[in-house]
Amino acid sequence: MPDDLRGALSGQLAATAPSRAAAAVDRLIETYRGTTPTAAPILRDAADVAAYAAYRMPATYAAFRTALAAFRLRAPEWTPGTHLDLGGGTGAATWAVADAWPDAAYDSTVLDWAQPALDLGRELARGAGAPAVRGARWMRAPLGGAPRLPAADLVTISYVLGELTAADRVSLVDAAAGAALGAVVVAEPGTPDGYARIIEARTRLLAAGYTVLAPCPHDGTCPVTGTDWCHFAARVPRSSLHRQVKGGSLNYEDEKFSYVAAARFPAAPAPARVVRHPQIRKGQVLLDLCTPDNALTRETVTKRHGDRYRAARDTNWGDTWEG
Predict the structure, then answer these.
(1) I need a labelling partner for 260 at 20 to 30 A (CA). Which of 60, 130, 160, 187 fits?
(2) What's the CA gap between 199 and 202, in Å, rounded?
(3) Of 31, 54, 92, nearest in space to 246 by CA
(4) How do 152-158 and 180-189 pair as beta strands?
(5) What's the maximum distance between 2 C-alpha atoms anywhere in the chain?
């Protein structure tokens, strides 16, 4: 996370009792891993929001920032003039957008149904270095039904589809597709159910005329089938409070996430995407790839490939591969 967000979180959470937050964290973990949509916002009060900020906000930020980096590689010249963050909660995606376009002058609006989350998000944003975060509008609004959304160049949907019914998920993605003037980026937890929600969103965006820029190198049917699912990982440093409320001892964790980034404007997707950890063996690297012809393939790159071998050794899960 950027230093200003890390500092804001530390300041806000300094007075939070880990024992008080731990129970709320346990419930949040079950919610994010579960399959049943909640009937009410999962962030119900200030205690829930404090738990979320300690447990989820750093991970959500890292996942969304990684997704935005992949999108930016495919559209390096494009810059948003306006940003709409749906289900933004405490603003993780809003901070991530500001970090992805640090020199852009644009306006951000965060819509969420949980007022305590919006209140904390607004408070965290007061000391932000990025003008778009510091000046963001934090607005309470229902995301179910058929929401009427303001137009924006970039629309982000951050870890909220799992809180909605199937019908509301469809209506929200359709509304986002209609509101976006340039691009839509959606991220969900990297679970089988989160992946299924991303595939559903991807299908809706394609039907609305969008081109998928990341992670897929194609607009065809996802080749991942059976019990497998497409997801990626972002490493998240843990604060001491995070370790206390999460009950962990390591100073980091790997946030698993699924995402889709799609655009209205002309741009080319990645030539191929690395969809598993590369296997580095003596004198060779094995890369599992999703390719432009809707296929999952394994490429073996050996020392005799010279520069390609060196590039393969530096390639990570989730990176593009030039093929």
Answers:
(1) 130
(2) 5
(3) 54
(4) parallel
(5) 60
Query: 131 and 20 share a domain?
Result: yes
Q: Is residue 278 part of a domain?
A: yes
Model's pTM, two decimal places? 0.90
Q: Which domain holds residue 278?
A: 273-313
Give me 259's structure tokens.
Answer: 């995402």
Amino acid 57 reads M
Domain assignment of residue 322, yes or no: no
Pairing status of strand 82-86 against strand 107-112: parallel
Task: For residue 258, tell me if it sits in a domain.
Answer: yes
Residue 225: which pLDDT band, with cuts at 50, 70 and 90? confident
pLDDT digits (tens, 9 = 90+) for 239-281: 665 655 555 566 678 899 999 999 999 999 999 999 999 999 9
Summarize pLDDT for 42-99 with one digit per residue, the tens: 556 676 677 777 778 889 999 999 999 999 999 999 999 999 999 998 999 999 999 9
The phi, psi pair for 268, rounded to 5°, reads -105, 135
Q: Alpha-carbon distance 191 to 30, whole Å?
A: 12
How many domains are there within the chain?
2
- Using CA atoms, how far apart are residues 103 and 143, in angstroms rounded to an integer? 30
Written as one letter, the residue type at 117 is A
d(CA 322, CA 314) in angstroms, rounded, equals 13
Per the CB < 8 A criterion, the answer to whether 272 and 322 are in contact is: yes
- The Cβ-side half-sphere exposure at 82, using a 13 Å CA radius, reads 12
Closest CA to 87 of 9, 186, 205, 191: 186
3-state secondary structure of 109: strand
Contacts 24+ apart (CB under 8 A), 21-26: 21/47, 21/50, 21/51, 21/54, 21/55, 21/245, 22/51, 22/244, 22/245, 22/247, 24/48, 24/50, 24/51, 24/52, 25/51, 25/54, 25/55, 25/245, 25/246
